[in-house]
Amino acid sequence: MAMREASDDLSVVVLASDLGVDGRTLLSPSERRLAEEESGEATWQWHDCMEENFSDLEQLQFLRLQGSDKAGNRILRIVGKFFPAPVVTVERLKRYVTQKINMDLAEGPFCIVYMHSKVQSGDNNPGMSVLRWIYEDLPSHFKDRLKVVYFLHPGIRSRLAMATLGRWFLTGGLYWKIKYVSRIEYLWEDIRKGQVEIPEIVSEHDEVLEHRPLTDYGIEPDTLHFSEVPTIRHAQDRYGDKWSRDFM
């Protein structure tokens, strides 16, 4: 259970124990700092990560600076499938994101192109609460400079999660900055071709969605035509007499 108390009211949030949500992510930045001080943990500062070595994460290329969108915002491309969630801690991910933005996007507005293609919740997705934690701990001028998040290939689960929990989890205006993009061709309405590199795995997934549009809604096609295979009872009724004659 996580509780948040204000001057005039009290709000209580109850979460199921099997959701695996870190309770600290439900606190505001000031509340987290207070909790860390009371527990004796060191308070993290954004400038602490500027000299840290992230060469191993750089090689994965899940977070790269690209060109600009049509509004002139620099593009920070995130490929979800390239992110190894099980082996990268939340704290290290937060430090890496902060260093990346501070060094590559020191000034000016920017946007995020997040590619959700073929992302698996256990392998590539750190979770909505973790993303909220990272976003809220960024310096305020970073958050102000983020203008839009292009969410490519969101899928039905992501849309439902955002619709039901997004307004509460994604505070500070981040929820309203998200723009869903179902196909790569629609991305070119806001970004000129050549300004952002599309990995092959993303292009292949886009082709699958183009030929199987119901996949967007979590409905997988019957590629093996199981619906056309007769049931065992039907097969027995149909061929029972023939088998009886052949073996008598």
UniProtKB/TrEMBL annotation:
Alphabetical list of InterPro entries matching this protein: CRAL-TRIO_dom, CRAL-TRIO_dom_sf
CRAL-TRIO domain ranges (all copies): 56-205
CDD domains per record: SEC14
PANTHER family, per the entry: OS01G0948300 PROTEIN
Protein name: Ganglioside-induced differentiation-associated protein 2
